[in-house]
Design a protein that fits this description.
Blueprint lengths: L9 H13 L5 E2 L2 H12 L3 H14 L2 E5 L8 E4 L12 H11 L2 H5 L5 H9 L4 E3 L9 E3 L40 H14 L1 H7 L7 H15 L4 H9 L8 H25 L7 H54 L1
Antiparallel strand pairs: 1-3, 2-3, 4-5
Helix pairs in contact: 1-3, 2-3, 7-9, 9-11
Length: about 325
Amino acid sequence: MQARESWLHPSAMRMARHLAYWADEHGSLVDIPGVLAAYSAHYARGRRTAWADFTRLVDAGLVRQVCAAAPYRQARYKLCMDVLSLPSDLPRDLAAELTAYVDNPRVAARRRPTRADVHEALAECEVVRYGSATRDNAIMAAAGEGKLHTSPFTREGFSPLCTPPARRRPSRARQRAPLGQDRIEEQANALYFVRELVPEWARQRQGQVLDDVALAEVAELARVLLRRMPESEVAELFTAQVTSAEDLVGVLRWRTGRTMASMRRAEYRARRLVVDDDGSRHAAWLAANAARDAEQVASRRAELVELARRRAREVAEARLAQEQARLAARLYSG
């Protein structure tokens, strides 16, 4: 790590020290949200800054994801070590430990593959393929990066060369239509989603349901919201506290407009927000405040010095006037 300090960001070095404290003896990191929350609390940084510092380590190759996030499962990461970038003037005991870990001669004497042998084999493997096999020069392969693999492929989770098992309870995929999708299919999905809400409306409104024309209008509102929100949030927005609504379509239209306006305002604020990832803006703000305070203190000090001098002159003039008055009185009496 000290050898990389010349080109690694100081915030990434701070995150590396934090991750080294939270990692287990194998270098694994499981509860990433908790680790980043502790980082934000300890160093007084925001969550976005913590993720930015963590991403710097991932981009530098010092942290690698061994298991992606999935439902009911958090992502797992592991600390990595690039042997090629280590300096050659390491201490003798540390160099011996690294040699025993990476290319142990005892393991090689037993004709077993060492970590260096596994790394050399994995570095030549084709792990990603792009394009079609039926066209000429249409396939591009991405091989290893020549670094030490701390875990062959993904020891925890699924290998990129195998297919994950199917889900036990298949559910209808969330319909968040991107731009360019068939509008008819999008409207059909929105209408199907709205029809699923009819029993909840009937339960709250004592059997009162909407006709087909009203359902089509509500489906158009749902179509707009489903592009930006998950189905669960749209369902809660359309079914929460609608018992006393005389015009249900009007209430849902007003809620949709209010929600879209709030999301537009949030997007506008996010575009104008300037994130202080490394604390440089905060440091500049502190320096400006310190300079302004120093200028105010110097100005106040000069005012106090001038006031003290003026008071001293006034006191001296008053004493001189008193002495002259006494002298004049003596001369007059004599």
